[in-house]
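@channel sequence for tomorrow's demo:
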Amino acid sequence: MRFNPLIPELTVSDIGRTKDFYRNVLGFTLEYERPENRFAFLSLEGNQLMFEEENGHWDTGPLEYPYGRGINFEMTVSDVEGLYRRVLDAGIGPFRELKTSRYRSGEAEIVQKEFLIQDPDGYLLRFTD
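structure tokens (generated this afternoon):
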């Protein structure tokens, strides 16, 4: 397995609930875990995330829901519409519904379908095509 140059490691309140959400709802693969450390490394189509249950080692301040305020994680997937349907079928309401967005990048325009959801700890996830 090849590791991305940047891999966010997110503190979570319950590693079991997090693994269940990312694997069974979003379709991530469990690459490896260290149960004794309540740690898991998951991936989806090249998107890589690490999760560790709160342990005090990395805390810079108190954690309150929603975690990750001020950040969203954009992840490109091959079938954003299919993933959106999976999320809805799981009974999860989107933070922002599936839509086509346009963003200026210099002189070019980026057009992408995207939706946003929050994970069980409130981290904001943006999935795009």
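heads up for whoever presents: The chain has one domain: 9-56+73-128.
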